Amino acid sequence: MSRSLELNRASWDERAPLHAASKDYEVETFVRDPGHLSEVVRFDLPRLGELRGLRAVHLQCHIGTDTLSLARLGAQAWGLDFSAASLAQARSLAGRCGASIEYVQADVYRAEQVLPAGSFDLVYTGIGALCWLPDIERWARTVAALLKPGGRLFLRDGHPMLMAVNEDHQDRLQLDYPYFEREAPTVWHSDQTYVDTDQALAQTETHEWNHGLGEVISALLGNGLRLTALEEHQSIPWEALPGQMEKGADGEWRLIEAPWRLPLSYTLQALKG
């Protein structure tokens, strides 16, 4: 296991119970309301289409709120994550909600070894996932291996243009970080996570990689997928640029001034074969 993977997994293991306990992930709302869906999946609904009866796998599923939402939309759902602590929370939530979801622990690049390859109608990758992967080509290869012929990839993620912006500058949009994938990670040090919690993290170092939009598309095309939809959005589910954004009624954050300057997220869909 690489040092980057070890550091990131330790960070997500520590974050998992904090996220499950926070109001941001709405765990208790899921338990109380059998029709509740995550804000992320509610945003995706107009594009997801009918899921009833489909075999769907959620890669990098974390504590499983989006996975549960896919199951509530009728999918036969699997979830995969490299964090044992995250999967413990995901299994607990599914159990409390009476949902039948298969959760498997592995990093994304081993997914086809631990899941039934070539059998999924849908591979779902939720927002904030790709930055934790060093090699977008290997990810695309994994997606292709999991999908059956005619199966679909649904990806929404932070836009790589946004990921190149330095959030410390609250008076301007300043590009300081890589747009294109690089072998060396961008190294972050912080004792904070992105939910509302008073607990500081002990695991403070994480490693991330950006992947340009062309790199993502080229990797998918090179592995036999056909692009069917690409939409760039002026919103994102978290306050990516503190001091420059406001939250809408839909839970999405947008730039306060001239929001047309910067794409914040994107949705991509592709079919195998």
Question: Which structural class do you get from the secondary structure elements?
Answer: alpha/beta
Helix content bin: 25-40%
Number of E-state strands = 11
How would you sum up the major sheet? 7 strands, mixed
Strand fraction equals 15-25%
Strand order of the largest sheet: 3-2-1-4-5-11-8
Count of runs of 4 or more consecutive helical residues: 9
Mean pLDDT: 96
SSE order, as H and E? Answer: HHHEHEHEHEHEHEEHEEEE
| Low-pLDDT stretches | none
**Gyration radius over CA:** 18 Å
What's the N-to-C terminus distance?
Answer: 33 Å
What does the overall shape look like?
globular
Can you walk me through this structure?
This protein has 273 residues and is an alpha/beta fold. Helices cover 32% and strands 23% of the residues. It is built from 9 helices and 11 strands. The protein has a 7-stranded mixed beta sheet, sandwiched between helices. Strands 6-7 form a two-stranded antiparallel ribbon. Strand 9 and strand 10 (253-255) form a beta hairpin. It is globular. The two termini are 33 Å apart. The model has no long low-confidence stretch (mean pLDDT 96). GO terms for molecular function: methyltransferase activity.
